[in-house]
Structure formats: structure tokens, C-alpha cells
Fold:
Amino acid sequence: MKKNKSKNIRGIVVALKANFLIVEIDHKDFKDQFANYFHEKVRFLCTRRSKLDYQGLFIDVGDIVFVESVDYKNKRAVISEVEPRKSFLKRPAVANVTLVSICISVDEPLFDMEQTSRFLLTAECANIKPLIVLTKIDLITDHDLTSYINKFNSWGYDCLPVSIHNSKGIDSVIERFRKTKLTVLAGPSGVGKSSLINYLIPTISLPTSSVSKKLKRGTHTTRHVELFEIGNGARLADTPGFNCPEIVCEPSDFADFFPEFRIQLTKSRCKFRNCLHRDEPGCSINKDLERYPFYLKSLEKMISSRLPYQEG
Structure:
């Protein structure tokens, strides 16, 4: 079967494999004599035109691309164009994300407020509103679960509690994800991201592992980012777990990434426009907020890392 020379065949990058990109194309987008050759979404192993490198265009999972030189028999093609991104999450690197779902476990591994906040801040810095999915809720009492939900609500976030062992909350998670075009599952290792995807999409069978008793945290089972369909045209991204996301932003912008701070600042502005909400006079931020000590410690680290080195 010969290669098709037509252009403008649109697809989405669903995974990276060595130096290749896996592009998924709906058979309806084959506007030629091969339109009836496939009857579902097909994945092609793709390279990229060198002109994209000259243009400085990086391609990541989630990017919408156009392919040409399509080899239908061997399922290979060449990426020739990339659509502008609507959003981009740097770590994990995923383009066109509409929801970041931060998976946090209540136990095994234990909940860590600072670690959770760092994951939330990575989404806030990318201007993508996060959702907290609280996993392994079968390990705690209803009273403790209510306390967690109230805590996250006070931070300004929605929370969906879920357990794959008794199916509690699964329907709510599925409903939320299917209403979202591209959801990224992020969070520390061992909190149950891959287990949740296996439960939601049983045909995938992603590898999972238990939490290390010595380190009290999970081990990495997901090695790369990959997109999976979850129904209604929605996709879900499983991502490698990591335990200490880096916060990259300007100190002057940092407070804006805390919803509970934003609420206060809309009601009452600080006396000085350059207020960093430390000990400045006329600051309107409530210093008794739960995450204020974390904010202050992180802010001081940001400022000190920017100071020029002076030999003592």
C-alpha cells in the first residue's frame, strides 16, 4: 500500500516512545480514499519535520498536530505542523490540559500538607484550576474524612474522596473526568494514580506497586506520560509520580497562587502594592491561615535563592 501524500490529517500526541511520537488519529479525519480503511481511532508512530526544530517548536503529549506522508500499512507518519497550545503543564510535561487532578492519599503514604501544596501550586502556576482526588479513604473514619474535605475547602479547592476497594466515590470521579477534555492525574508516588486508572479503564492494566515500609512512600511505576480515553471524547493522562515539585515563580506573584489568599485580597487590599505579606504594615492577609507558615517559608527560600552570592 502506498503512502498518502495528502496533508492536514489532524491528530493528538498520546505518548512519547524513544525518539518517536505516538499520534492518535480518528478514522473520520482521513479525508481520502483511505477513510474507510480504519473504523476507529488509530495510533501512528511518527517522526517530526526538521523545520519544527529550526522553529524551536517542542512537541509533548497533548499537543494537537498535523501529519503527512502517512504509511497506513505500517502505521507511520511525519508530523509537519503543531497547533498553538491552550495551556501547558511543565512537570509533568503535558499540553492543552483542562484539569489537573492531584491525587493525595490519606494513608500509605501519609498525607503531607507541604507536599500537597507544592502539587497544587504547580497547577496554579500554569493557570489551570486543580481538583483534589483523595484516595484510600477506606483506611480512615468518616469523621476524619470530613475533616480532610473541610481542610481542602478552606484552602479553596474541591475534593472528590474515592476508594477503589469499596467503589466509594468512583461514580463522581468518572462523571467529573468525562466532562473534562484532558485531565492530568498528578501526585506523589504510591497514592494510587495507576490503580485508579486501572479501575476506571480496566482494559489498560497499568503496573502498580505497594508503598515502601522503610521509606513510607511509593515507588515509581509510571515511567512516562500517556493519554487514555475515558469516554465522551475525554482523555486521562497518567504521569510519573514524584515527591517534591519545584515552585517556580516571582516572589511578588506567589501569594496569588493561594486561593484563600486571593479571596482575602479581593475583599481588602494591602496598604502597599508591593506587599509580600510578611510583616509589612497594612497587610490584609490573615496570618492564622493554615498554609501561611508554608507560604512564608517558601517565600523566604525564593528570595534567598535570588540574592547574589557574597564571599564571607
Q: What stands out?
A: Residues 255 and 261 are 6 Å apart (CA to CA). Residues 1-6, 208-222 have pLDDT under 50 and may be disordered.
